[in-house]
Amino acid sequence: MEQPSVRDVSTPGRIASPGEGIGPEELALAARNHGLPLEALRYEVTPPGLHYVLVHYDIPATDPVGWSLTVDGRVRTPLSLDLAALRAFPEVTHRVTMECAGNGRARLTPRPVSQPWLVEAVGTADWTGVPLRLVLAEAGIQEDAVEAVFTGADHGVERGVEQDYRRSLPVAAATGDDPEVLIAYAMNSLPLPPQHGCPLRLVVPGWYGMAHVKWLREITLVDAPFTGFQQAVAYRYRSAAADPDDPGEPVTRIAPRALMVPPGFPDFMSRTRVVRPGPVPLEGRAWSGRGAVDRVEVSADDGRTWTRAEVAPPGPHRWAWQAWSCVWTATPGLHTLTVRATDAEGGTQPLEPPWNRGGFGNNLVQRVPVLCC
Taking residues 176-203, what's their average pLDDT? Predict the structure, then answer.
């Protein structure tokens, strides 16, 4: 008799069949991984309990007492650092907007079967820790090192592959100061909560959330590109017609997006908004992993015509979202409010979803049904 294997319980990725609704497995993922309630866009800094959460496997049992971070591989001086040693490095705080690469997946047709995000997988926090470049400088990077591999304490199986969660960054990105990657130990001035990576996590400003390795326990410098599952198999842009052996393009920086605080008040089930006739203030947040948001536009007729909103300048927090606002004069009837962002590099949100097999980077414009009565 064949021996049982983790592959017996871990199936390949798949695309939902035509007409297939969200099933129990996706509902279970949605129950574990919560998004940002859109009314919480009012907060410039997201309270930790409202910040989106994606946990691939289990939240590991971690104790800050006795925790150590090792730095090894292609370095001159391997390190083992406890929290006290890390806190001895210069401390910095960066306000960073973090978004899941799968945000918008559930709005795709056909739907890649996975965590069924709509638009709510985002949040902004003040992350405090030590710049990664300082720790790597202390270890001394050898000349042949090309990437830094980050290992978290979370362990599981995915598409038949048993693994610790691991991701890598090129040495240039790991040691740069624009953006400056952090080894963070605090969120909004408090120790990291368990679901956000206690006691240590990586924060990579401008990159989608898969790069921000949580429960960080090891950094290994390597002399060849890392080919682990989360790097070479998952988190790749692959088209519908892609060859199964096509590696696709890596998911990296966040595409521009604007979201609206839903106006008025909601119907319980449909979440359709109800407003009264007359001036209705509209507000929200916009961001991009390529830098500042240059323009936000709002439509009251589902994208046929657009009005430019006022956008707050990025200020000192380059990698945090920017506030936007405008006033809409509501008239009786059903309306579809739409909002889109354009960043300083000219990237803008599409009116049709950019489909790929993993459901990544879908920055389709937000549409908000509104009844004025």
Answer: 97
Secondary structure of 297-328 in HEC code, one letter for each residue: EEECECCCCCEECEECCCCCCCCCCEEEEEEE
- The CA-atom distances, in angstroms, between 104 and each of 52, 60, 165, 184, 267 are 13, 27, 23, 27, 22
Mean pLDDT of all residues belonging to the chain: 95
Q: Nearest-CA neighbor of 65 among 198, 203, 202, 214?
A: 198
| Helix residue spans in the chain (DSSP H) | 24-32, 83-87, 132-139, 171-175
Residues whose CB is less than 8 angstroms from the CB of residue 88 and which lie 6 or more positions away in sequence, other chains included: none
Spatial distance between the Cα atoms of 265 and 283, rounded to a whole number of angstroms: 14
The pair of structure tokens assigned to 320 is: 């945090």
For residue 175, which of 208, 209, 153, 145 has the smallest C-alpha distance?
145
Q: Would you say the pTM of this structure is higher than 0.85?
A: yes
Sign of CA dihedral 283, 287, 291, 297: negative
> In this structure, which long-range contacts are made by residues 293-297, counting pairs with CB atoms below 8 Å and at least 24 apart in sequence?
293/256, 293/258, 293/322, 293/324, 293/341, 293/342, 293/343, 293/344, 294/342, 294/343, 294/344, 295/341, 295/342, 296/258, 296/324, 296/339, 296/340, 296/341, 296/342, 297/339, 297/340, 297/342
For 301-318, write each residue's pLDDT tens digit: 999 999 999 999 988 999
How far is the C-alpha of 200 from the C-alpha of 152, rounded, in Å? Answer: 9
DSSP of 172-229, one letter per residue? HHHH-BTTB-EEEEEETTEEPPGGGTTT-EEE-TTB-GGGS-BSEEEEEEESS----I
200: its two tokens? 């240590």
CA 7 to chain centre: 28
Can you say whether residue 41 is alpha, beta or left, with left for phi > 0 and alpha for psi between -120 and 50 degrees? alpha
Return d(Cα 43, Cα 367) in angstroms, integer.
21
From the list 174, 261, 208, the residue with the least C-alpha distance to 96 is 208
- Provide the token pair at 114: 């996975």
What pairs with residue 339 in β-bridges?
298, 366
Separation between Cα atoms, residue 257 and residue 253, nearest integer Å? 12
